[in-house]
Design a protein that fits this description.
It is built from eight helices and 20 strands. By secondary structure, the protein is an alpha+beta fold. Helix 4 runs parallel beside helix 5.
């Protein structure tokens, strides 16, 4: 059992002192743009990275505890098995170094191999396996240890999407059946979202938001989170707000075509930002090609944009568009009814799901519940 805590921790690109508590048996994903510091955190916890300042605690300070005595297992993207040894021998090395008997060693390896589907490959040379299977060997090597803390450092960064998806599934299953604490570092927002765990988003060397992945996706705390956490990330449109008799209107900056009335029911504070620079945030799934409108019906919450290209994928298409001032991405279920790129189309924005960010502070204008 292990509670893991960082107190005023600094290492690598993390300069300001990070405070983070990860509970016993908790699965926590650390994420942020490339170089955000997640690798430094997990490697420092493993005892493989120097700590510039602060403390790491497993219920007690462990900064000076040797890596071999921390009861952790690290799986990283650069794991390479011993090529001349069989998969079985690769898995046995760590146990034998810890003086496990041959009976217990075999028992653990056979059990983990069955879970990961490696039974048929135990006698094969490790370097004969494709990359995805070698990464599973790395995961298996950690699992046979049965550590208190599993640490993952971008473990499946170079795998194809199908292999990475299968490997992530095994990690989620591992958390469900074990009593271990899991800390998973990734610079891929899509992977953090797919894992769907408690997620800590970093940017500029500091924690920006900490919470369930879905909550962060739905309610990003600031521009740094909104511009990263999504696949693709949120569209951010620079503009200003102005007060009109009918309410508050967002006007895109420059030559942009967006002029959208904001629902004050959602943004009761919008009037106080009139005349100020803001960013309007729209998820790609909240922008759709305008459907047929009855004659005489006013068009609201819509704008015209040039379609640059589209990438159909089954029931929907990812549409790349340009408003004149911004390049945006939409996910459309109506694209099949339209011609190719190069056309100007009317798009509808779902403002009930939009976000406003103060351009000066970067903070999100909290919408009404």
């Amino acid at each position: 059992m292990a509670n893991v805590a960082l107190r005023n921790f600094t290492a690598g690109t993390l300069k300001d002192g990070v405070d983070l508590v990860i509970g016993d048996r908790e699965f926590v994903v650390l994420t942020g743009p490339a170089g955000f510091g997640g690798s430094a955190i997990v490697r420092a916890i493993a005892g493989l990275e120097d700590v510039s300042g602060g403390e790491i605690l497993f219920d007690r300070p462990i900064n000076r505890v040797a890596a071999k005595d921390r009861d952790v297992a690290l799986v990283s993207h650069d794991y390479t098995p011993y090529p001349a040894l069989s998969v079985f021998e690769n898995l046995a090395i760590g146990l034998r170094r810890r003086n496990f008997g041959e009976s217990e060693t075999k028992k653990r390896i056979v059990a983990v191999a069955a879970v990961l589907g490696l039974e048929e490959e135990l006698e094969q040379k490790a370097d004969s396996l494709p990359g995805g299977r070698q990464r599973l060997v790395g995961l298996a090597r950690a699992m046979v240890r049965q550590p208190k803390v599993y640490l993952f450092d971008e473990p499946f960064r170079d795998l194809d999407s199908a292999a990475a998806r299968r490997a992530r599934t095994e990690i989620v299953n591992l958390q469900q059946r074990s009593s271990a604490t899991i800390i998973y570092a990734t610079s891929a927002a899509a992977e953090a979202i797919a894992l769907d765990q408690r997620t800590v988003v970093f940017s500029s060397g500091a924690i920006q938001q900490d919470g369930p992945a879905r909550a962060i996706y739905d309610e990003p705390e600031n521009l740094a989170v909104a511009s990263f956490f999504g696949n693709p990330p949120m569209n951010l449109v620079a503009g200003t707000l102005r007060q009109e008799r009918s309410g508050v209107v967002f006007s895109e900056s420059g030559d942009g075509t967006m002029t959208l009335p904001l629902p004050l029911v959602r943004f009761p504070e919008a009037a106080s930002l009139a005349g100020k620079s803001v960013f309007l945030g729209l998820r790609p799934e909240d922008i759709e090609i305008e459907g047929p409108v009855a004659t005489g019906t006013p068009v609201v919450a819509s704008f015209r944009a040039l379609v640059e290209r589209a990438e159909p994928s089954g029931a929907e298409a990812t549409v790349y568009l340009n408003t004149g001032a911004h390049s945006l991405i939409a996910r459309s279920r109506r694209w099949g009814q339209e011609a190719g790129g190069g056309r100007r189309l009317q798009f509808r924005a779902t403002l009930e799901k939009a976000h406003l960010f103060d351009a000066e502070t970067g903070g999100r204008v909290t919408p009404s519940a």
